[in-house]
Specification:
Layout: H1 2-10, H2 17-36, H3 46-54, H4 62-65, H5 73-81, H6 93-108
Length: 109
């Protein structure tokens, strides 16, 4: 993973890009461990990508209706404890999109 980040830095990444990429990677790694008990895989299986998309876009009321399509309570608690979730409710779709794009960037490098 560090090798990928170094490669991206050496390619002339913008000044603010590396901190954002590092932050997103830290979130993704924490989420993967909380959700699957395994580190973030490269490349990621499609099922894991779909899980990542549905977890942060969950609505609290959906937890009772569709427990497999929302962020499980234990994952939420773990991410909160580590400081990765600071507000209640779903993430903004743009945040999820950015994290997916960064995951893809890291997987390609």
């Amino acid at each position: 993973m560090l090798r990928r980040l170094r490669h991206l830095v050496n390619e002339g990444m913008g000044e603010n890009t590396l901190p954002a990429l590092t932050s997103d990677l830290a979130y993704l790694e924490a989420w993967a461990i909380a959700a699957t008990s395994s580190p973030l895989p490269f490349p990621a299986p499609e099922a894991l990508l779909l899980k990542f998309v549905t977890h942060p876009l969950w609505r609290p009321q959906q937890r009772e209706i569709e427990p497999d399509h929302v962020m499980p309570s234990d994952v939420e608690v773990d991410l909160r404890r580590q400081g990765f979730l600071r507000v209640s409710g779903p993430h903004a779709p743009t945040t999820v999109r950015r994290r997916l794009a960064n995951w893809s960037t890291l997987a390609r490098s």
